[in-house]
Amino acid sequence: MKSIKYIYSSLFFVAAGLMTAQAQDKKAEEKGVVNEEIEVVRPYKPILAEAVKLRRSPNLDDVKTYKAKLNYSIMDKKLALNSDIQKLQAQALAEEKESILVNNYVKGGFGSLATLLGEAYFNTGKDEGLQVGGYFKHFSQEGKLNKQNSSNQQLSVFGRSILDENTVSGRINFERNGTYFYGIDNSRPTLNPNPDKQALTTIELEGELVKNFTEDEDAFSYALKANGYIWNDKFSAKENYLSLNGYVNKRINSLNLGLAASTEFGNTKDALTSVGNNLLRLNPYIRLQVKGAKITAGVNFVQEFGAYSSTKVFPAVTADFTLIPDYLQVFGEVKGDVNRNSLKNFTDENPWLNSNILVKNTVEKLSFSAGVKGTGGPGFGYKARIYVKQFDDMPLFVNNFTDFNKFDVIYDFGKTKLTGLEGEISVQVSDALKWTGKLNLDDWKPASETYSWFKPGLKVSSNFMYTFNKKLSFNAGVVIQDDVKAKVYTGAPVPASQYVIPNPGIELIETVKGYVDLGLGADYRINKKFSVFAKANNILNNNYSRYLYYQANGFNIFGGLTYSF
What is the pLDDT of residues 273-313, one digit of tens each? Predict the structure, then answer.
C-alpha cells in the first residue's frame, strides 16, 4: 500500500517538472521574422510610505517638558457683571419727508355797508420752545343811519420762551376803536343832526414768568405776572393802570400750601374828575388733592386805598369731586371779592360813554355756585351750574338827560342780588361736524333801582361748523337776547357824582326789545396757499338795539381772499 503512494507521488512531481520545462522553451522562429518575447518572473517587493512605518503604540518614555515664561500684572478694576436681559431695539423707520409748516397768513375783504377787512398773522416757526409773532387787524363798516360808522384796529406783538426751569412770555397790544354818537330817538329824529366822533385808544404791555411743572411730589412752584395799560378817549378822559400778580405754592404729597397776592394801581382823570383807585389782595390757601377730589380752602383779604379806603375779608373755598371718571364731576364754590371798575372796562361794554364818569368799586359780598360737568362719550361735553351773587354798588348805564345819546354810570345803592343758571354743551359728531351752545338765565333783584338797567334775563349763543370736504367748509352763529329795560329822565337829576337814591318822579322806563342775530360763513380752499371766504351778518335784517337809541347794522355781506405761507 505504501509503495503505491510512492509511485503516485513520483508521477505527480515528474509531470510538474515537465510542465515547467515546457514553459521555458523558446518559441519556434518564424521564417524571416525576429520576434521574441521574454517573460521575466521575479519576487514582488512592496514599498511602504513613511507614514505607514510609524509605530502603532507611542513610546511613553519619550516625554519632553516645556515651561513657558509668564508675566503677570494685577489690575485694580471691578468686574462688571451684566446679567440683565437686553431690551429689544425698535427698528428705525424710514425718515418721512418733513411737512411744510404754514403759520402765516394775510387776509383781505370788502362788502356791503362799505365793509373793509384787513388781517395778517405772522409767527417764527414750529419751535415750541421759542415763539415770536404778531398780528394786525382792521375792520370797518358804515351803517344806513347818519354817521353810523365804526372801525376797529388791533396790533399785537408777542413772544414766549420755554427755558429749563421757567417759561417767560410777553406781549404788546395796541387797539383803537372809533365810532360816532349816532344814537337816534325815533320820536325826535332832529335832536342829533351832527353826531360827535369818539375814539378809544389803548396801549397795553404784559409779561409773565412761570415755573415749569415737575412730577416731584414736593415741588415748589411760583409765578409772576405784570400788566399795565394807558387808555384815553377823543375828549379829556385818561386812565393809567398797573397790576402785579404772583403766587407761590409748595406741594407736600397730596397737600398744597400756597399764597396768591396781587396789587392794582389805577388813576382816572377827566375834565372835572380825578380818582385814584387801588387794591391789594392776599389769598393764603391750603389745597387737598387726592384721587377723585380736590378741595381748596382759604381767605381773600382785600385792602382798598387811594380815593376809597376799606378792609374786607372774604371766604375762598372751592371743591371738585369726580363721581364717574371723565363722565361726571360735581363742583362748588363760595367766594367774595372787590371788583375794580375802570373807564376801560365800561367802554369795552358800552363805547358811547359820557364824560366825567364817576368811578368806584363794586363789592361782591358773597357768591355761591355749584354744578356738574363732564362728558357723555366721545365728542360730547357738558357743563351746568347755578349761582347766587350779592353786590354792593352795582354799576348800571343810564342815558344822560342833556345828551340823550350818551350814557352815564350810576351805582345801585344797596344790595343787588343775582340768581342764575348757566349751561354749556359741545357736540362733535365727527371731524367734519361740530356744534357748541351756551345758555344764561339771570334773575336780577335790584337794590334801589326799579330794574337792573340793560341787564338781560336770557342770553343764548351757539356756533355750528361743518366741513363738507377738504376744500369747502361752512360755519354759522346765532345770538339770542330777550328784552331789557332802560331808564330815561324826564327832568334833570342830581349830578351823577352825587347820585345815591333814584327819583321815580322824573324817570320813564323804556323797553329795548330782544333780538335774534344770525350769521353764516363759508370758506373754499383753492390750493395750499390761497382760499376765499364769505360771511353774512344779521341775515334776518333785524333793526335791533343793544342800548337805547343805538340801532345795530342791518343785513350785510362781505368776502375776500386769504393767502397762507
Answer: 999 999 999 999 999 999 899 999 999 999 999 998 999 99
Instruction: Give pLDDT tens digits for 475-519.
Output: 999 999 999 999 999 888 866 556 678 888 899 999 999 999 999
**What is the arithmetic mean of pLDDT over 63-79?**
69
Give dist(CA 471, CA 527) in Å, integer: 8
Distance of CA 207 to the CA centre of its chain: 19
Q: What per-residue string of b and e applies to 431-461 under the rule 16 or more CB within 10 Å gives b?
A: eeebebebbbbbebebbebebbbbbbbebbb
In whole angstroms, how far apart are CA 158 and each of 134, 172, 173, 240?
6, 6, 9, 22
Which neighbouring-strand residues pair with 444?
418
Contact status, residue 307 vs residue 277, Cβ threshold 8 Å: yes
What grid cell was written down for 235? 375828549
Measured between alpha carbons, how far is 516 from 461 in angstroms, rounded to an integer?
A: 10
Nearby residues of 313 by Cβ (< 8 Å), 6 or more positions away: 299, 300, 301, 302
343 within 8 A of 357, measured Cβ to Cβ: yes
363, 341 contact by CB (below 8 A): no
Per residue in 279-313, is it b (16+ CB within 10 Å) or e — as a string? bebbbebebeeeeeebebebebbbbbeeeeeeeee
Distance (Å, rounded) from C-alpha 269 to C-alpha 238?
5
CA angle, 196 then 202 then 204, to 5°? 175
CA distance 318 to 553: 43
Per-residue burial over 397-424, b = 16 or more CB atoms within 10 Å of its CB, e = otherwise: bbbbeebbbbbbbbbbbebbbbebebbb
28-42 residue pLDDT tens: 444 445 556 666 566
Q: How confident is the model at residue 122 (pLDDT cuts 50, 70, 90)?
A: very high
Q: Grid coordinates in use for 175? A: 387797539
SS3 per-residue string spanning 17-36: HHHHHHHCCCCCCCCCCCCC
What are the percentages of helix, strand and coil residues in the chain, rounded to 5?
A: 5, 55, 40
Provide φ and ψ at 379, rounded to 5°: 85, 5
Among residues 411, 391, 533, 414, the alpha carbon closest in space to that of 472 is found at 533
